[in-house]
Design brief:
By secondary structure, the protein is α/β, with parallel strands linked by helices. The protein has 7 helices and 11 strands.
Amino acid sequence: RIAREVLNCSTRVLREVIDIENKSIYNTILVAPPGRGKTTMLRDIIRRLSNGIDEINFKGKTCGVVDERGEIAAMTKGIIFNDVGIRTDVLDNVPKSIGIRMAVRSMAPKVIIADEIGNKDDVNIINYAICSGVKCIFTAHGSNMEDLLKNNEINKIINLQLFSKIIFLDEKQKDEILPELTEQEILESQNIEKTQHFTKPPA
């Protein structure tokens, strides 16, 4: 697989990820079947959160990316070939269970990002990161909530109520590029409890 950038494809999703009132982000899982653009979307989210978004006065966050298979940053010999932002540190070719702990202990990230959670080691390390005060954004395979709950490890994560947002990606969003964000759009978007493509985990 070749990592492919689609700049500014994350505008619609960022409306749900950014906690505009607190100038922070929500702990979030992006969900879609294979090939639907989860990693492409994640990469652009990282870039924009790291750089900051001037139009909504959102200051850049220090991001720690645990790139287990090298598909996010496309790092080779220590050089990052994809744009993941100016405040982003990347741990490449390391398991999430090790990399997330390393990032929390030594990188002082405000946000930790990793691709495709769902393994048996993920529950404890995600709980560790979030309980350490770090915000987290991850991806997972699935088409709907039923698919997620069939994965025992993700089921445990959801039941721990660690995540504020679970976002299901639509096929149309894969390469969609929208106008810039505004604070009003984000606030209006987040006043909607549930839409066709965005949902919150059950209480």
